[in-house]
Amino acid sequence: MHSPEALVYIVDDDEELCKSLAWLLESVSIKSRSFYDVASFLEGYDPLTPSCLVLDVRMPRAGGFQLQETLNQISSPIPIIFVSAHGDIRMSVKALRQGAVNFLEKPYDPQHMLDVVQETLELAQERFEANQDRREVELRISALTPREREILSLVIDGLPSQNIARKLGTSVKTVDVHRTRIKAKTGADSIATLVRDILQHNVQV
To answer: Which end of the chain is less congested by CB atoms within 10 angstroms, N or C?
Structure first.
């Protein structure tokens, strides 16, 4: 089930539709916030809250696809449900290829919308937690010096200390000292668990 703090953002220039969808969500105790244009949503969006987005394709000024592109550029984990009164296969394929989780035609069936939103909020919670874990790993690595990052990168490539020392023109003892510092600075149980976390969350060293 979704977290009680989870939120549904509704971005649609149709004010009445926003109100009716917000009421529908409220009827099953799902919190929502409505915005009537892309700019106001970007001002009000809180990436530190698990959330999903119900997004209209066509709006004045910036449309849904432009907002999707912006969110992709900032690596936002928010899952998007597109809605459109003018949807076609080409449009839905484009939305899904760029990462949307669903594409619904207006007018949508209320119960189907609730089912889709509830499923998507579960996904939002999973993505949010994974994103938090990734940020934590990035924060731990940010404490490392460039040399320590270089050695860690070679460890990730599978090189033992002897090979790393030869490659960097230094001694095995120096490499092992760096490895000990890397473990201490990142608070890792071991270098192996640190490498696992880096690979699991696709973190750049």
So the answer is: N
